[in-house]
Write a structure and sequence with these properties.
With 383 residues, the protein is mainly β. It folds into two domains: 187 residues, Jelly Rolls, CATH 2.60.120.10; 156 residues, Sandwich (Jelly Rolls), CATH 2.60.120. Helix content is 9%, strand content 35%. The chain contains five helices and 29 strands. It has a seven-stranded mixed sheet, with no helix packed on it. The protein has a six-stranded antiparallel sheet with strand order 3-24-21-26-19-18. The radius of gyration is 22 Å and the shape is elongated. The protein starts with 5 loop residues before the first strand and ends in a 9-residue tail after the last strand. This is Cupin 2 conserved barrel domain-containing protein. InterPro entries: RmlC-like_jellyroll (IPR014710), RmlC_Cupin_sf (IPR011051).
Length: 383
């Protein structure tokens, strides 16, 4: 069957069963790469596992397995490693956001990691671009760090000079294209990247501890709204949204994200009550759900084209732009997930007519900006 979404005359994108199957990435399909980076042989750095769910990320291993290589406007992966193991200082050119869902991590900033911040479960850290960063597992188990990177092409990474030198002593070098060269198996090292010099180091960015703290968002900084989606005014659709980066999906005009600087994507928490669903809707942007807790059903398309899949926590779900979708909590407890949408702009939700009409009967509509409002204040043309 065709694995490419089909665009209908109505503007809706239809996905078939094969496409749905490849867009739902379950934990048993995750593939660990223990050779993704040049520092894997440096003492204290062995045992790192990197995962590429959506796009290749910044892996330097040409053999890295990517679950879904289709460009989304961002990359999503994860990291896991034993207690005490370190990911060494390197720099990114596009946004990098870490979300801890298990364990505790010491995030290190600067060439030598002198500036630190700790994060634990359900805490997010947006690392500034053009600054060295690394991290250490300080928890009791291997932990789990989800990562979201801005743009399809991240531009690769730049290692701190002492890391390139230490890696060279283990036989690993980098080509100008950013690929790992292994001298221990006879690969030529006549054309490799040289460490950045001291003058260039001084040109990188620096942030105060207070500025860094503003980029850490834990549960205590979340602003949940239970009227963030038009469907939430209806029975059976109890949901809540807490924006974290950008405005995302919210239709509550009072909500403000704690991080609003451009990342190339928006990110928010979505919470569904037991048995509740969002109702069918679509947005123009590519979207990915990272299911953190609970049992879920994800429905693609609508009417006769519907395809529903039951999925569990830990699953990564991709939905192409303009495809109808509905998310349902099939469990007996509150279900939570992270929602990533491509682009910096707020995503305007197109609701199925059944939702719009039922909301109107209940006295609610949306204004011209797409925000929920009493329908009697909207004049003759509520959106």
């Amino acid at each position: 069957m065709n694995q490419n979404p089909v665009l209908q005359a109505s503007g809706a994108v239809i996905v078939d069963i094969d496409d749905v199957d490849r867009r739902i990435i379950e934990p048993h399909q995750f593939v660990a790469d223990t050779e993704a980076f040049i520092d894997v042989r440096i003492p204290g750095s062995a045992g790192k596992a990197s995962y590429s769910f959506i796009g290749p990320g910044v892996s330097q291993n040409a053999d890295q397995i990517v679950n879904l290589a289709e460009p989304h406007g961002f990359n999503i992966g994860a990291a896991s490693m034993p207690h005490g193991i370190v990911n060494n200082p390197h720099m990114h050119y596009t946004a990098e956001v870490f979300i801890c869902t298990r364990g505790r991590w010491e995030m290190r900033l600067g060439q030598h990691g002198d500036q630190t911040v700790e994060i634990g479960p359900n805490t997010l850290f947006s690392v500034p671009t053009w600054i060295f960063r690394g991290f250490k597992n300080i928890g009791d188990d291997d932990g789990w760090l989800l990562t979201v990177l801005g743009s399809d092409n991240t531009g690769g990474i730049l290692w701190a000079p002492q890391i390139l030198e230490a890696a060279a002593s283990t036989g690993l070098h980098l080509s100008p294209a950013g690929a790992v060269i292994d001298a221990t198996v006879g690969e030529p090292t006549n054309d490799t990247i040289a460490p950045i010099d001291e003058t260039r180091l001084g040109e990188l960015d620096h942030y105060t501890d207070a500025e860094i703290a503003e980029r850490v968002v834990g549960p205590d900084r979340l602003d949940w709204s239970e009227v963030a989606l038009l469907s939430s005014v209806l029975p059976g659709h109890g949901s809540a949204i807490a924006p974290v980066i950008g405005f995302g999906l919210t239709e509550d005009r009072q909500q403000r994200p704690p991080i609003w600087t451009p990342h190339g994507f928006t990110l928010e928490w979505l919470r569904l009550e037991p048995g509740a669903s969002t109702g069918p809707h679509r947005i123009d942007q590519n979207q990915v759900l990272l299911l953190v807790e609970g049992g879920w059903q994800v429905t693609y398309n609508r009417l006769d084209d519907q395809i529903a899949r039951g999925v569990t926590e830990g699953t990564v779900v991709s939905i192409p732009g303009s495809c109808w979708r509905e998310f349902t909590n099939t469990g007996t407890a509150v279900a939570t997930c992270l929602v990533v949408c491509a682009g910096d702009n707020r995503a305007r939700v197109d609701w199925d007519p059944t939702i719009r009409n039922a909301a109107a009967e209940a006295g609610w509509g949306r204004d011209a900006n797409g925000y929920i409002a009493p329908i009697d204040l909207l004049g003759s043309a509520p959106w």
